[in-house]
């Protein structure tokens, strides 16, 4: 057996580990609990906890932590040691079923959107039995990580996991009903599957810590590109440099040890930008594994004297980073419900699930857009590097042809839903052709047997867009179930499905667009179709508290009204804080680094010109030097004018009590002023010798690994 298979999952407590350490009846009960068919009792939890404790101690663990995902897009953990004391004063290792099932945290110290007051601190973490535990840390001081949900004292969701789990259950319930109505008596469970592609940048550590903006805000507030950026198309899929290759090899190994199925790695479009893709898993596990991956990228990069940047747009002028979420549904028998090859006269379920996404995304496009509305993503969406801010679905010509001619399609001899082949050369074997092309400009593209949602930003948790998508599809399937139950009493399955698909497609096909999403023509066409164009976070977030969206979450038992409102407040407040941070950092860099340097530079240049003119009195000899000096002085003056204005803007913003109105002020007044300040600072950088500029340049950051 090779080293990869030997190491995979060695630090992950799998079902196989459990089977080797507990009686069969406990394993059976565990699986029933995991599949929602039984409740976890303290008796069973005690047995499982003891098995986990023994495994963890054998692996060198000293602590355990309830690992959860608060509304920060980060993870949180509080480490407790296994050590305890017996009544006789001797030491022992203790980890009970109660320790496994429940933890406690201070809810008022995490974002809660008003659900908790400062004095209302108690909150709970609860073991998520569906996601495997894992070990992290160095030999001799490892910690057992227990994936958990995070709730307030009264049960309100304060994290990313709870609504995700609720949405998965809602979607499973409705999809199972669909399967039964369509004659599927074998399927007992439906899995929501997810595969995540994670983009990121790497920079040398010695340059990173000299850039206050990168350290404090995650992005460069100032900086101009060198002559070469990404225009030569030589970085994407290019040869991986040795230093990066070593980093990636260690990253893969660390991920494999904790059971994360890292599959693909490559250079991305921008210099020093890379991607890692994980294999498909159930959505909840996949979200957890993406969080593990982001954390591991940072830790392994640090060991290689690099810093990983997960911000959506750390550098202006080159592509930003996204997180593509590949979403699908499958049965417990291994059937992908979004595989068009399953489509036949006797199996029309593919059409039901396809049209459910089309209708759901059209009806709730604004809510789905809101899940990607973050300060970092504002710099990325709508540029010719990421999908536009307008939600649309790419299906490809073959699927559109099926839907447009649904009544005349011969499903038993349908070449449209089965792959053709491409002949290249007699020395190269023919290759199967997918049912559709891959439209990289589409926010949501059908890519053969799944939907790829390309709008989420690289730093965000995929939990939010996925729980919203799950809820949308579950809600539509609920309507379809009611329709099918009524119509199937007097009609055949084929008649009912064809009628439903035709009706819903004609009502919602405005959301389908197979063209170039980067063109102005599409923006104009989308406006004619009545599709929402929510250009930034401030325009996007209010969709979360529209009445129909609140009711959507309520009737599917995903979020209560108060939970929906709280998330809106959390995200608005996060936007305000991030804007304030970027602007404050920009002001500090100008005041403490750029301005003092420019004053010295002007003084030195002035003295140099003055001394030279004493030797060479001819004024024309120094015309260009004097012009450059004048230009630098004028740019310096403009820089200070915009810096003063930004300080005034910040003072005005803080006085606005309504958080959303404050966000609008940041978006419409403060950020445009920061862009004007950046323009002046970047022009100054262009005029100054690279090795003299007081902070590392884009050349240092993007071309030195």
UniProtKB/TrEMBL annotation:
Name this protein carries in UniProt: Uncharacterized protein
Cross-referenced InterPro entries: Gln-synt_C, Gln_synt_N, Gln_synth/guanido_kin_cat_dom, Gln_synth_cat_dom, Gln_synth_gly_rich_site, GS_Type-3, GSIII_N
Domain annotation GS catalytic: ranges: 160-594
GO annotation terms (biological process): glutamine biosynthetic process
PANTHER family: GLUTAMINE SYNTHETASE (PTHR42974), TYPE-3 GLUTAMINE SYNTHETASE (PTHR42974:SF1)
Highest taxon of the lineage: Bacteria
Entry GO MF terms: glutamine synthetase activity
Transmembrane segments: none
Database matches in PROSITE patterns: GLNA_ATP (PS00181), GS_BETA_GRASP (PS51986), GS_CATALYTIC (PS51987)
Organism: Fusobacterium animalis 4_8
Lineage: Bacteria, Fusobacteriati, Fusobacteriota, Fusobacteriia, Fusobacteriales
Coiled coil: none
Annotated SMART domains: Gln-synt_C
Domain GS beta-grasp: 62-155
Family: Belongs to the glutamine synthetase family.
């Amino acid at each position: 057996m090779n080293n990869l298979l030997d190491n995979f999952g060695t630090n992950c407590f799998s079902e196989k580990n459990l089977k080797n350490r507990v009686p069969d009846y406990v394993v059976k009960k565990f699986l029933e609990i995991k599949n929602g068919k039984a409740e976890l009792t303290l008796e069973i939890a005690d047995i499982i906890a003891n098995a986990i404790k023994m495994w963890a101690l054998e692996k060198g663990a000293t602590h355990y932590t309830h690992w959860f995902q608060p509304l920060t897009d980060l993870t949180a953990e509080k480490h407790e040691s296994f050590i305890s004391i017996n009544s006789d004063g001797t030491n022992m290792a203790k980890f009970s079923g109660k320790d496994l099932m429940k933890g406690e945290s201070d809810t008022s110290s995490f974002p809660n959107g008003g659900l908790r007051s400062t004095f209302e601190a108690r909150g709970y973490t609860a073991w998520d039995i569906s996601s495997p535990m894992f070990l992290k840390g160095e030999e001799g001081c490892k910690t057992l990580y227990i994936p958990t949900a995070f709730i307030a004292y009264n049960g309100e969701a304060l994290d990313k996991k709870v609504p995700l789990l609720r949405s998965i259950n809602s979607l499973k319930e409705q999809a199972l009903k669909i399967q039964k109505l369509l004659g599927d008596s074998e399927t007992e469970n439906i899995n929501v599957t997810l595969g995540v592609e994670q983009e990121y940048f790497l920079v040398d550590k010695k340059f990173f810590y000299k850039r206050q903006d990168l350290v404090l805000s995650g992005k460069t507030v100032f900086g101009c590109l060198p002559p070469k950026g990404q225009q030569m198309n030589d970085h994407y899929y290019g040869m991986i440099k040795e230093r990066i290759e070593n980093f990636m090899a260690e990253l893969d190994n660390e991920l494999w040890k904790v059971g994360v199925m890292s599959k693909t790695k490559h250079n991305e479009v921008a210099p020093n930008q890379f991607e890692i893709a994980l294999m498909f898993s159930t959505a909840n596990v996949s979200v957890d594994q993406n969080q593990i991956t982001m954390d591991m990228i940072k830790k392994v990069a640090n060991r290689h004297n690099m810093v990983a940047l997960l911000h959506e747009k750390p550098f202006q002028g080159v592509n930003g980073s996204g997180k593509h979420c590949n979403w699908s549904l499958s049965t417990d028998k291994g059937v992908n419900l979004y595989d068009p090859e399953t489509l036949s006269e006797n199996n029309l379920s593919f059409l039901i699930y396809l049209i459910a996404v089309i209708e759901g995304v059209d009806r709730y496009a604004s809510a789905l857009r809101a899940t990607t509305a973050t300060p970092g993503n504002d710099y990325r969406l709508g540029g010719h590097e990421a999908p536009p801010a307008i939600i649309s679905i790419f299906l490809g010509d073959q699927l559109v042809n099926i839907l447009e001619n649904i009544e005349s399609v011969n499903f038993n001899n349908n070449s449209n839903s089965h792959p053709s082949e491409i002949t290249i050369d007699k020395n190269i074997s023919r290759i199967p052709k997918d049912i559709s092309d891959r439209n990289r400009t589409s926010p949501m593209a059908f890519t053969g047997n799944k939907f790829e949602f390309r709008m989420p930003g690289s730093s965000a948790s995929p939990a939010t867009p996925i729980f919203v998508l799950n809820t949308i599809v579950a809600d539509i399937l609920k309507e379809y179930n009611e329709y099918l139950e009524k119509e199937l009493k007097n009609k055949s399955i084929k008649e009912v499905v064809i009628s439903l698909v035709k009706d819903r497609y004609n009502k919602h096909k405005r959301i389908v667009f197979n063209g170039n999403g980067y063109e102005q023509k599409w923006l104009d066409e989308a406006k004619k179709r009545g599709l929402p164009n929510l250009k930034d976070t401030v325009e996007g977030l209010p969709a979360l508290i529209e009445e129909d969206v609140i009711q959507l979450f309520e009737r599917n038992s995903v979020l209560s009204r108060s939970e929906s409102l709280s998330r809106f407040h959390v995200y608005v407040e996060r936007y305000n804080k991030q804007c304030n941070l970027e602007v404050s950092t920009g002001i500090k860099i100008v005041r403490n680094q750029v301005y003092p340097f420019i004053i010295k530079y002007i003084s030195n240049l002035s003295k140099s010109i003055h001394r030279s003119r004493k030797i060479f009195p001819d004024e024309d000899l120094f015309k260009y030097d004097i012009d450059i000096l004048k230009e630098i002085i004028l740019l310096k003056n403009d820089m200070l004018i915009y810096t003063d204005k930004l300080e005034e803007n910040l003072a005005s913003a803080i006085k606005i009590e309504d958080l959303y109105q404050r966000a609008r002020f940041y978006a419409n007044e403060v950020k445009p002023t920061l862009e004007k300040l950046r323009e002046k600072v970047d022009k100054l950088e262009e005029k100054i010798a690279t090795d003299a500029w007081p902070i590392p340049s884009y050349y240092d950051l993007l071309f030195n690994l």
